[in-house]
Write a structure and sequence with these properties.
Elements: H1 13-21, H2 27-32, E1 35-36, E2 42-43, E3 65-70, H3 76-91, E4 94-99, H4 103-112, E5 119-122, H5 125-129, H6 140-149, H7 152-157, E6 159-160, E7 163-164, E8 167-173, E9 176-179, H8 181-187, H9 195-207, E10 213-215, H10 227-240, H11 243-251, H12 259-272, H13 275-278, H14 289-292, H15 295-298, E11 301-305, H16 310-318, E12 321-322, E13 333-338, E14 349-358, H17 363-371, H18 375-383, H19 402-413, E15 417-419, H20 421-424, H21 427-443, H22 448-457
Length: 462
């Protein structure tokens, strides 16, 4: 799944450019003045200008430019650029943010054409793995920082054949259902705690005089259309099968068209392909993933399954207000409940995130990659709003959105957590046939078995 984040404020690009060049008294001083210790070594930290002490480890790269290539575009990219201003001012490194919605296709073109970016933010570990031969192994400082600031699973996802390449960046938790506490309260609906209860509630809503649908959904996302449907499969795989089966599905030690997977796609179809619940099923394929959730804001649907980042989108684009479950008098108020398991005590968590890999071994590139792994940057970025990570040093006090704060706690304390399967599978499957076949499943009513057989046929030979 792709990771999307949303806005807090807009900072003009011109302002950012000026700020990035305002190096006098900070980076310039740091680069030109070095103190020598009694042992003869250089004590860079003692020469760092006041206010720039936190950036001492990244000094010595003044005047360098580091390109970051990513799927994240305006307005989301504005907050990323804002989070780098102090770093740029103090180190003299200019970060060139290059957002491209066609990242999945163009990253291969750039690498093959000899114009690879310095750093790339990979939205899928599976896609990352296909570029291992071109990436630079993460330097020791990056590796040590990830060891200190993330659980071991996160480093594993950035490792290929025993070599660690890419550090974690943002994260998301996906096991959420979005709803309006006011709509639920007005209709007397209770939050379901099991999958069966949720289907029963869906039946109740469909049979009631509620003006909207029980569920709304959308899977259109440009070249990445279909990823939102794969998320349903992944959450349900963790619920109807055990974690070992999920892992076997991901690494293909179990075939994609195994009967266990067939059971899961059938369960997903009980909602996504049920016209009584969703209305026009085929329209889901041409409805954007963000617009798909807007119905919980305007009351045209009761529930929408989507990751934690949806809140920022609904607030920024559809005028929603994120509220607590008890705030039942707020028009346009949205909240979440946990996407339930088969039983109430079954609480697996599905999530995702991005990984920053380097195509250059330049010291300035290593400095930026390192900085992005630190609690300092993670807290700075989170405090700007609409974003969080799995960094263990991230203080939930810096995560204002109550849904995101809960998601951070889940990530930091999860006992059973699995990464988005399509993000870990080989790129031709996870960011290819899995997306396109799930789209055909909805848009063309393609049969369950035919969808799974088609995906299985695309799995690369080992």
């Amino acid at each position: 799944m792709r990771h999307f984040v949303r806005r807090r404020s807009m900072l003009g690009v011109a302002t950012l450019s000026v700020a990035a060049l305002a190096l006098a008294g900070c980076a310039a001083d740091a680069g030109s003045e070095e103190a020598t210790t009694d042992s003869g070594s250089t004590d860079t930290e003692s020469a760092v200008a006041a206010g720039c002490e936190a950036y001492a480890d990244y000094m010595g790269n003044e005047g360098e430019t580091v390109e970051i290539y990513t799927t994240i575009i305006e307005p989301e990219s504005t907050l990323f650029q804002e989070s780098f201003v102090d770093f740029e001012d103090c180190t003299g490194i200019t970060i060139e943010w290059n957002g491209d919605q066609a990242f999945e296709e163009q990253i291969a073109v750039r690498v093959e054409g000899g114009t690879a970016p310095d750093l790339a933010i990979f939205p899928q570990p599976g896609l990352l793995k296909s570029f291992a031969a071109d990436l630079v192994a993460a330097p020791a400082a990056v590796s040590s920082s990830v060891d200190a600031n993330y659980t071991a699973d996160w480093k594993t996802y950035g490792t290929v054949d025993g070599t660690f390449y890419a550090a974690p960046l943002g994260a998301n938790v996906k096991s959420f259902v979005w709803y309006s506490p006011k709509v639920f309260a007005d209709n007397g609906w209770a939050i379901p705690t099991t999958w069966g209860d949720m289907l029963t509630l869906s039946d109740e809503i469909a049979a009631s005089d509620f003006a909207g649908n029980a569920w709304c959904a959308g899977i259109e996302s440009g070249a990445a259309t279909g990823w939102a449907a794969t998320d349903w499969m992944e959450d349900l795989m963790l619920r109807f099968q055990d974690a070992a089966t999920y892992d076997a599905w991901v690494d293909h030690s179990m075939a994609f068209n195994d009967p266990k997977v067939l059971e899961v796609i059938g369960e997903a179809g009980k909602i996504l392909k049920n016209a009584d619940y969703v209305g026009n099923v085929s329209a889901i394929a041409t409805t954007s993933f963000s617009e798909g959730g807007s119905g919980v804001v305007d009351g045209s649907c009761a529930m929408h399954r989507q990751a934690s980042f949806l809140g920022g989108i609904l607030v920024g684009d559809y005028g929603a207000t994120v509220v607590g479950p008890d705030e039942t008098d707020v028009e346009g108020g949205i909240s979440t409940f946990y996407f339930p398991g088969v039983s109430a005590d079954q609480t697996p968590a599905l999530g995702g995130g991005e990984f920053v890999g380097a195509f250059s071994d330049a010291p300035a590139v290593a400095a930026v990659q390192h900085y992005l792994t630190t609690p300092e940057w993670n807290n700075k970025k989170a405090a700007l709003g609409g974003w969080f990570s799995a960094n263990l040093g991230l203080d939930t006090a810096n995560v204002a959105d109550p849904v995101n704060a809960v998601a951070v706690e889940i990530l930091q304390n999860a006992t059973t957590f699995r990464f988005d399967a399509s993000d870990v599978m080989p790129g031709e499957v996870g960011a290819g046939s899995f997306w396109t076949e799930m789209t055909a499943w909805i848009a063309e009513d393609k049969a369950d078995q035919a969808v799974l057989d088609a995906i299985e046929a695309t799995w690369p030979a080992s």
